[in-house]
Amino acid sequence: MSGKTLRIDGVTRTFPARGRTPPTLALQPTSLAVAPGEFVAILGPSGCGKSTLLRIVAGLDRPTAGTVSLEGRPVAGPGPDRGMVFQSYTLFPWLTVERNIRYGLVERGLPEAEQAAIAARFIARTGLAGFEHHWPRQLSGGMQQRTALARALANDPEILLLDEPFGALDHQTRELMQELLLEIWEGDRKTVLFVTHDIDEAIFLANRVLVMSARPGRIKAEVPVPLPYPREWTVKTTPEFGALKARLMAEIREEVRRAAVSAGA
Predict the structure, then answer these.
(1) Locate the ABC transporter domain: which residues (predicted)?
(2) CB 153 within 8 A of CB 76
(3) Averaged in consecutive runs of 10 residues, what is the pLDDT profile of the chain (265 residues)?
């Protein structure tokens, strides 16, 4: 099992006033521990602060109060111990698939031969063989996200952070990417924190699903997923999966209604 314990202690985030817009409380005090090798999914309505929380863990944003630490070491900014995959396609358009995957390795100053070997391994694992020298503009959305995932994993991070990584993909490609991610996780057991709007996706992938309230966000429910690994797509047709989905749908619907009422107020 790989990774280090992630601790989020009393984290809040308030965005400051802008012009006539008053300060916005995005996150209420939030505390969470993610064990090494655990796969945790975060569900919640739009605007509830789940992506803000992930960005704070990544070091791309700072909490107004509270702390984030990895194995007791405070998170003060981005670092190679955390790999991030975004919903939007974030590949460097001037680099080929292989060079995108090698980007973090180049920044770390690894020898050329080691970079090439690591990139080749993750190109094979993510089904990108034959596309090494393609430019991002020549790839489908699914292939671009395979490249982004390979780039994050190539750096061998302690924790993998994924913010709606498959949200822009068509249904069939999305399911294939879920299966690919799960296959990689089952092999490596990286610590994963995964933000999604998709209930089926959260249940299929995670050990544990956290439900966030409407803004200002807080963790309002924690639902263990006792389905055994390895998981095949057929698990989605089982009564156990259906029961978990019904429970999470009830939690989410309540928060979506609250968010809609708040928006109309």
Answers:
(1) 6-239
(2) no
(3) 80 88 90 95 89 94 94 89 86 95 93 95 92 94 91 92 89 90 91 94 97 90 95 95 96 80 62
In angstroms, the CA 14 to CA 83 distance is 25
- For 48, the 3-state DSSP assignment is coil
54 C-beta neighbours (distance < 10 Å), count: 22
3-state helix, strand, coil in the chain (%, to 5): 40, 25, 35
> What is residue 176's three-state secondary structure?
helix
d(C-alpha 255, C-alpha 260), whole Å: 9
- The correct CATH number of 6-14+22-176+188-264 out of 3.30.2010.10, 3.40.190.10, 3.40.50.300, 3.40.50.720 is 3.40.50.300
For the beta carbon of residue 78, count every other beta carbon within 10 angstroms. Answer: 11
